[in-house]
Amino acid sequence: MQDFRTETFLDVCDTLSYTRTAQRLNITQPAVSQHISHLEAVYGTKLFSYSNRRLSLTEAGEVLRDALTVMAHDERLVKERIAALSGKRRTIGFGATMTAGEYVIARPLARFLQQRPDLQVKVVASGTDDLLALLHEGVLDCALVEGFFDKGYYDWEVYCTEQLVAVCAPGCRLAEEPQRLEGLLGEHLIVREPGSGTRAVLEHALAARNLSLDGFARTTEVTSISIIKALVESGYGIAFLYESAVRAECTAGTLRAIELDGPAIEHDMTFIWLRGSLFEREFRGLVHELAVCAGEV
């Protein structure tokens, strides 16, 4: 079970300041120092180092932080499971990146929840980096991400593989014949913001060809997938979006896919949760149930 000293330690990991932690926890700064010293004595090593007026975690501190973060998260889930025994609904903190949330998981999730009246879900849609932070803060239990993540810190399971496609307006010459990726650099590119999984996958694919976003004639950053599609439909530029996000528009003819020479740009959409969680089996079961629901939609 977590106690006040581990709470202090995790807060210092977040603030990297004894003073700010004391203010946030409404305790004195000497108390913060005492709590950290106690843990260092228990584990027989320094957890923080101080250099150039900056506090930082030692390697041992990072190990302890990761372990206690998982423990704190699992303790909350245990409390909710116990409360559920008396009839209270269990809550799942569920995150999804924008494309994954709107075009991949929304309908399967709705079907899943219809079958599970014992659950209530808190859904957060945001960029991959934001979702990773919320997992570590304990706000989320698991997340479906399209971006890249460090597999050393999370347990994970691939949900599906999506293709990133280039799209343009109807009647655009680019859709008339296959194009080389390099041949699109003279175009105006409408792209998601930094931190977006879609953008990260595109940047990775470009880098594999020694290209970058800077190589395009012009770029416009837009945070909304719907706005990007509307701009492309009007002939304002081209965009790279996941096939699931533009399937309806390409079928209706309001967008055209640009056929690219070479291998398709593909990327996994992956469920992740904190590595070492006692509830790993439950999270994997959730992924399976959502996949079944996706097949029924």
Automatic annotation (TrEMBL):
Keywords, sorted A to Z: DNA-binding, Transcription, Transcription regulation
Domain HTH lysR-type, chain residue ranges per copy: 1-58
A Pfam family the protein falls into: HTH_1
Protein name per Swiss-Prot or TrEMBL: LysR family transcriptional regulator
Entry's family note: Belongs to the LysR transcriptional regulatory family.
Organism of derivation: Raoultibacter timonensis
